[in-house]
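Issue 218. Parser rejects a valid record. Input:
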Amino acid sequence: MLSLSTVFCKAERAHFFNSSNRIAEYFTEGRSLLVRWKMEILIGLLISSLSLYCDFTDAECLVISPARLVVKYGDPASSNCSSDTPVEIGWESTQGGVGLTDKEVKILNWRVDSVTDWENNPKCFTDGGQCEKQLDITVYKLPDSVSISYRKYPDPMVEGHQYLLQCLVQNIAPIGRLRVTFYKVNTTGEQTELDTQHKSKDNIKTPENGTYTLDFTPGRDDAGAQLLCSAMLDLGPEGPQPPAVMDSNRLNINVHYKPQITMSPGCFSMTITEGNTLSLNCSANGNPAPSYNWLLPQADPNTMKERSVVTITNMAKSHSGDYTCIAINPLGNSTCTVNVEVTDAECLVVSPARLVVKYGDPASSNCSSDTPVEMGWEAIQGGMGLTDKEVKILNWRVDSVTEWYSTPTCYTEGGQCLKELDITVYKLPDSVSISYRKYPDPMVEGHQYLLQCLVQNIAPIGRLRVTFYKVSTTGEQTELDTQQKSKDNIKTPENGTYTLHFTPGRDDDGAQLLCSAMLDLGPEGPQPPPVMDSNRLNINVHYKPQITRSPGCFSMRITEGDTLSLACSANVDYLPIIAGLASVVILLVISCFIYSSYYKHTRMSH
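Output the parser choked on:
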């Protein structure tokens, strides 16, 4: 099929603009003057338009088959030159040339047993040189070797420094069809492309050496990886398939870098109970391997330092302070400080220390002491006074939690020791719904619309995460946005409204929108966290036409006598526009037919 925009008649363009009268005479012979005058105007307009679009060429007098050859140096090559009618034919060539035949023939073969001329351009010709046709031949040679090296060898590499890699491809032709790719191969064998290079040397056909360079900056993750380059000779569809590839040797990467500490439990503040053992592990990733030093708040006979680990037994309040680890190697150092606070030993322990309870469900927790004491529970629900005698454990229990702000507290006589139970009361939403703030019917491509997700009667709303999704026509679900509101102080049920600006495209037509409400209450809550989805909104998108034309919107040639076929399809939501485009296509096809008939008639008359 041929594109509308390709019909362009440049051979006799000036002649076309002056031909309306003769064409009118051809089509209106024997008709009235008024009809002839109208036809002259109409056909003149058609010719003016078609002169910009139609292109007719003479049929070829010689045909070479195959028209293009890709031959390895030293291999045989062959091609035929043919004509529709018998003529005297010859081949002009530095290898395998054939003079004009003694008699007229329809076909003449060119053949070479071993191609050794890089610049050979075989040409088929007829008697007197009235018609000539050149064979497109590419002679190639695979490289003798491919090697990769550093322009200046680094021993070792240093993280963050830049090094110049060099890939040498020796004795290859044609070098203009060579593509060189640099790769990095990590320790697991995964190969990553760093860069691909191609030099524009289409005029060089003889073997050449090619040097390709790349600036490479290693990181610590590159330690132990390898570098290589790969040479691919891409000679098109007529060449070897798949294209011939030769890899270089591999360079091992040895990267030195300064230490980077990974401290356990981390470089931050921590607390420890008096009498317990403190153990800090300061491991560092560095090359060369680092040495370690510790700075402590005070010297202590209970302290043991062994490389990256420091341990202190029987912690006392005097041990509070900063513990600093220093990791050092020749490229630098890294430090990490942990602030340690030593607290009094607990007199009461609540277990479990945190409860997550659904509204209306039962709840229970124990308060215990290492030594017997009089203890009680202070609570809006399930409160208990001090025990009559000293005990080691006391249970708090409620058959149905109905108080949102309950904070049960275990205490000893005189309030000398207090321990609060962390309790979260939750309620799942009554409903989750999605809607447009202002309903669009239909949506228009590129316009922005406000989506609204309403979650009704949920607690605690500060632990709610709302996610907007788009579901394609194939069922694939895409996350658009996730939102969470900071309302940790609100414990009673609330309604939550969440909004999102959505801009549809033509690919969204027929898809659906929804929102999902997830109540994430942490590891003590339901697992997996409960999720409720909303209803789904169907997306109907209107958009302007986008033509998909075969073979494309560009110029083309067609041989005289062949059939012209044009297809113009459009992706659009408006049928009237499609009908209008179809009318234009039909008019131009009819116009091309009229012009073609006239063109042939005038040529025959001459």
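Fixed in the parser; the record now loads. The CA atoms of residues 252 and 416 lie 67 Å apart.
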